[in-house]
Structures are given as structure tokens and as C-alpha cells.
Amino acid sequence: MTFSASVMPATAATPRRASATRRPVSLLRRALTLPLMVLSFSLLAGCGQDEETSAARDDAPGKTQTQDRRLRVAMLQPPRSGLNPLTDDAFKLSRWRTAETLIRLDADGDPQPFLATEWEQLDPQTWRFTIRPDVTFHDGSALTVEQVVASLTAATNAVPKPRILDGVEMRIEADGENAVIVRTADTDPLVPNRLSSPQLAIMAARAYAQAGHVDPIRAGTGPFVLTEINGTQSATLERYDGYWGERAELAGIDADYVPDGTARGAALRTGTADVVEAVPVSQVALIDPSLIHEVPMPRTNTLYLNTASGPFQAPTLRAAAREALDRGALVRTVYEGRADVAEGLLGPALAWASELRQPLAQRTAAAEPDGVRITLATFTDRAELPEVAVLLEQQLEAAGFDVQQEVRQYAHIESDMLAGKFDAFILSRATLLDSGDPVAYMVSDFSCAGSFNIAQLCDPAIDAALAKAGDLPPGPERRQAIIAAEAAILETDAAVPMLHERVIQGEATDVVGALRDPRERELIDEHTHFRQTADAR
Q1: Angle CA(531)–CA(533)–CA(534) in degrees, nearest 5?
Q2: CATH 3.10.105.10 is right for the domain spanning 296-501
């Protein structure tokens, strides 16, 4: 099985010198501390925030002059580990396009060339990846086979390991001057998908100079070079003129961490940020609709029903709970219309799911609950879930159940949840884990050996369906098998999907090409730029 990079030629860009004036660190954050009455775009412009130049693009025929401007981004969360790429902070590096991986995923979750131009599965446990030539790290050193081996080996030896490598034994070795061999202890058709995880970004040797710490400054290969980390306040990136692909259209990125949702909404509303992550629903009514973009998330709000003990051992009562739900009411009220009614476990973030899904062949008829008492539980950490529980209690009681609620912080309820102490549990669950593939989530939640099997479900037919899907390589056949496994799970009514969540991304009207990625791996890339208008500032 061989994959090539004919769709992504490795054309090196002509080096250029960025000419934009660099703004002071954390200007956005300082602006956000001002009273909202005086927080304005003109204030920032007076501070030299929006100096810009235009340069003719002789490396992109047919394009007009590009603005040599910096993009201001308000990020949702500060880094937890100093932007260590072996942690969840890697997703920030990926969203800023400063760190890159061997593989990237397309919209369907299928692997595509990136720093590897092609790959081949030599046997069930051995893969060969050809490394892209003429790539340099941000410190000027060359991307070599040896450094790819060193970088991936550092990830396999990390404590803790990146999530994508949980339970995976992987060895990497050089194969000549232009390829690496990846060997796994077990057959694993998702090796290319795993290598797309931002936590397996390839970094320069300088990143690993200090034992126990990975420093991403000037160590990536992307179109933007990370030049400064200001703790949990901000980060600064400049255009990297030696990038192996197309030259970035932006002069740089100024990223501020703004955990407060009201402040992020204000930054978008007042023009102190150009792109804003995760605008809260409560702020949307205050913001010009043209600045708001909703992105479907691979996250499903699901009602799990305990199949091993209590009333929901009976399939007919599980069917009664399923019939009692008014999903549309949950979307309209709790989520103010900014969510999608669920048709299955996998939502619109995976467009192929709805295209392949067929009506279920078997549905158990519902019985009358006749006042049977059930315990409905959820947690407070996600603000919407207690509200969902209140409305769901009303719907279930209207159908004849006697509902008792139990709501705690997640840390205080997880062990009881996993032990099957509740009859029903409401959970907002990510359906795509780091591999970009839903099989791992389905195995975890619905297989007999699943580590997150809230419904206590154990069905040999489901295990067989999941095993079939898991053994197939990424592509149409695997996607069809995943939908077949989903149908087998839904027919048990052990899990009743209610809605699929969205995230609201804010973008200034003159921003073009900000990425709206359901997997939250991408946000800004080399093509992101400002629209040229007569009054552009």
C-alpha cells in the first residue's frame, strides 16, 4: 500500500524579509483591562498597532498586492506546559502553523502528505515514510532523517506519553538518507493517522537541548516561527521566509490568552482582536453577526443508559427513554439554537457520517414506564449539562418516569459514573480522539473491554463490528464499517445521542482564510490574510 504526494509538490518559496512593525507584547491583553467604554480599535491604532506595508507578490502570479500586517488572535486557554509540543499545548503550535507533522488529515480524516511526501506499509507492523527534501527548521538547520527519528523517539520516551501513543509500542529508525521506518508491536492501520497528531510534530535538535523539557522557540518548520513565549500571557510569531511551501501572507501573529469569555467577546466586538477562539453563546447577541462563524464540533451530548443494572436493563424501558426525548427543545433552549440535533453518534463535523447513515433496521418498541424511579446524573464542569439535566428530567417525567437528579463536579462523579452507579448519565463526549478517527472513541465507550463504558454495554455483535472497522485502513471501506458499528450500538438504545455541539469562532470582516477546523488543529495558515479595501486599517 503506497501513498504519494503528487497533490502537494515541495516547492520552496523565495526567501523574503518581513517588513511589518512588530507590536509590543500583550498589547491586546493590556487593552482588555481597560474599561469597555474606552476600549476601541482607534485606541490601538493610535499606539502604532496597525502600521502596515504592501508588497508586490512576484512569487504568486495573478495575486494582487498583499498587506504586510500582523494578525491579533485571542486564544481560549493559556498553555499548561510552556508550549511543550509533547503535551496538549501542541494544538496551539499547530493552530499557529509553527510546528508541523509528517502527516496531515483531510476533511474526512484520511491521511495526506505533509513533512512526509509518501509512505508505504511494508508489512502489518512496518511502515516506511519518505521525508520531504529541502526543508529547514526555524533555526536554519536542515530537516534530516536523523532528526525525524530523534524527534519521534523523544515522543515515544516521554513521561507521560502523548495521548496518541497510549498503549502503542512504536520504534523509529532511519532508512537511508530520505526515509524512516516505523515499527509497531501490533498491527495498526492507523499509524499514518497517529503521525498526524500535533503532539508528534517534528522539532529541531535545539528543542531537546534541556533534559526533560522541549522548547518550541525557533524549532518548528511551519510558515510562522515562534520567537517569544510570554508565560501564560501571550506568544509572538513572525513570518518564516525560509518556509518550504508558499510564503505566508501575514507578517506575523500576536497571540494573547484570554480565558474570560466576556473579554474575548469584547475583543471581537471592539476590534482589538482579529480572530477570537470560542466566543460564548451569551456574548453572541452583542456582536455583529458578520463577525460570527459557527463550527460543528466532533462532540456529542449523549444520554448513556445503564444496561447492566437497574431499570434500564430492560430494552423496552431504554426505548421509552429514547422516545421521551425532545432533542429540538434542548437545542432551542439550552443551546439557543447553536447546536445540531443528533441523528447518530457522529455529527456534522464528520460530513461522511450523514451521507452513509441509513435508517436503523431494528428498533425496540417502548414500554410504559409506569412511574419507575431512575437516577439521572451529570456534572457541573460544562455549564450547559446541568441545564440539559433539568429539561431532560421534565421530558422523562412527562413520559412516566420518576426522576431523581445527582449533579456533582466531574472529579467527584467520574468514579461512580464508570462503576455504573447511575441509571442514566448525561455526557458531552468527544467522538474524534487524536487520530482523527472515531473507532477509538467507540471502542472505549461501547465495547466489552471499553475503559469508558458508562452504559456498561457488552454485546459480542458490537465488538465484532468495532473489530472489523478497526482492522481496515483509513478510507471509504473503513468509514462504511464505522457507520455499521454505530448502527449496532444505536439499536441497543444504550446510548441516546441528543445533540452535536458547535464552537463559535470570531473573525474581523477584513480577515480572509482563517481556518474553521472541527478538530481544532488549524486556525491560521500561510494563506490567511487581510482583505484589501479602500478603508482597510
Answers
A1: 160
A2: yes
With a cut of 60, say whether residue 121 has pLDDT above it.
yes
Domain 2-274+508-530 has CATH 3.40.190.10: yes
**Sign of the dihedral defined by the CA atoms of residues 326, 330, 331, 333, in that order:** positive
- Crossing angle (nearest 10°) for helices 439-446 and 476-490: 20
- Bridge partners (DSSP) of residue 488 are none
Q: How far apart are CA 18 and CA 496, in angstroms?
A: 53
Task: Verify cis geometry, omega within 30 degrees of 0, for the bond prior to 160.
Answer: yes
Contact 472, 287 (CB under 8 A): no
Q: Which amino acid is at 127?
A: W
Q: What are phi and psi of 502, to 5 degrees?
A: -125, 160
| Residue whose C-alpha is closest to residue 251's, from 28, 45, 68, 54 | 68
Whose cell is 503506497? That residue is 2
Q: Rounded to 5, what percent of the chain is helix, strand, coil?
A: 30, 25, 50
Beta-strand runs (E) in 309-385: 339-341, 373-379
Contacts for 252 with CB less than 8 Å, ≥ 6 apart: 18, 20, 22, 70, 71, 224, 236, 237, 238, 239
pLDDT, one tens digit per residue, over 304-341 is 999 999 999 999 999 999 999 999 999 999 998 999 99
Report which of 498, 418, 411 is spatially closest to residue 456, judged by C-alpha positions. 418
CA distance between the termini of the chain: 51
User: With contact defined as beta carbons under 8 Å apart, do 255 and 73 qualify?
Assistant: yes
Name the region of 26 (left: φ>0; alpha: ψ -120 to 50; beta: rest): left
Mean pLDDT of 267-279: 95
Q: Which of 425, 330, 313, 327 minimizes the C-alpha distance to 367?
A: 313
Of 11, 195, 228, 9, nearest to 98 by C-alpha is 228
User: Residue 287: is it exposed, middle or buried by C-beta count within 10 angstroms (0-12/13-18/19+)?
Assistant: middle
Question: Among residues 304, 300, 315, which one has the least CA distance to residue 454?
Answer: 304
Within a 10 A sphere around the Cβ of 471, how many other Cβ atoms? 13
Question: In the structure, what pLDDT confidence band is assigned to residue 56 with cuts at 50, 70 and 90?
Answer: very low
Q: With a threshold of 0.85, does the pTM exceed it?
A: no
Domain boundaries, the chain: 2-274+508-530, 296-501
Look at residue 537 and tell me whether its pLDDT is greater than 50. no
